[in-house]
């Protein structure tokens, strides 16, 4: 999320038409089209953040600026040439790194929170812990994970958060 994404559609000699068909998981479909005989591009229901990266007559690559969760879904490029139609399908998955917070609760326990990540983050502790993480799903598809470390004999605890977007750790003394 937040970065640009580029989906490559290999150009072919003698292209007569190129169409990107986009079906996001949320919201309605959109399309970008190019007709070589008229040297004309067309767009239907696509936001300004979705566009050709280059001139479609030379390279029909698609670029999505500031990728958000709403961009997740199916993207198919169709290239029409005299020999037939060629399809290049993609499924765009959007990763959202969680916000990591580590704090002490009223009982002196360490609490590690990986907020609003997509997919849900995994939380572990440097020292073994019998805590079962709690997950809370949000309407936008992100998940907050909360894990509590009950310390009996140690002062400093370290929380480790693992996620496809990266790994982080924080330490605290409660």
TrEMBL record:
PROSITE patterns linked: IG_LIKE (PS50835)
Signal peptide from the UniProt entry: none
Compartment(s) of residence: Membrane
Keyword RNA-binding attributed: no
Entry's Gene Ontology molecular function annotations: signaling receptor activity
Record membrane topology: Single-pass membrane protein
Any one Gene Ontology cellular component term annotated for this protein: external side of plasma membrane
Record-linked Pfam families: C2-set_2 (PF08205)
Top-level taxon in the UniProt lineage: Eukaryota
Residue span, Ig-like domain: 60-173
Keywords: Disulfide bond, Glycoprotein, Membrane, Receptor, Transmembrane, Transmembrane helix
One BP term from GO: regulation of neuroinflammatory response
Keyword 4Fe-4S: no
Predominant localisation class: membrane
Family the UniProt entry places it in: Belongs to the CD200R family.
Protein name, per record: MOR1A protein
Organism: Dromas ardeola
Lineage of origin: Eukaryota, Metazoa, Chordata, Craniata, Vertebrata
């Amino acid at each position: 999320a937040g970065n640009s994404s580029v989906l490559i559609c290999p150009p072919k000699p003698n292209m007569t038409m190129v169409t990107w068909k986009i079906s996001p998981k949320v919201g309605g479909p959109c399309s970008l089209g190019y007709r070589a005989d008229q040297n004309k591009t067309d767009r239907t229901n696509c936001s300004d953040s979705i566009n050709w990266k280059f001139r479609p007559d030379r390279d029909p690559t698609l670029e999505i600026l500031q990728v958000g969760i709403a961009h997740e879904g199916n993207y198919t490029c169709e290239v029409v040439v005299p020999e037939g139609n060629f399809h290049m399908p993609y499924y765009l998955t959007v990763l959202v790194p969680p916000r990591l917070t580590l704090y002490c609760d009223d009982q002196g326990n360490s609490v590690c929170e990986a907020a609003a990540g997509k997919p849900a983050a995994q939380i572990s502790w440097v020292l073994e812990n019998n805590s079962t993480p709690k997950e809370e799903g949000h309407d936008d598809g992100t998940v907050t994970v909360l894990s509590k470390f009950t310390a009996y004999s140690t002062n400093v605890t370290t929380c480790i958060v693992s996620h496809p977007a990266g790994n982080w750790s924080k330490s605290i003394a409660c």
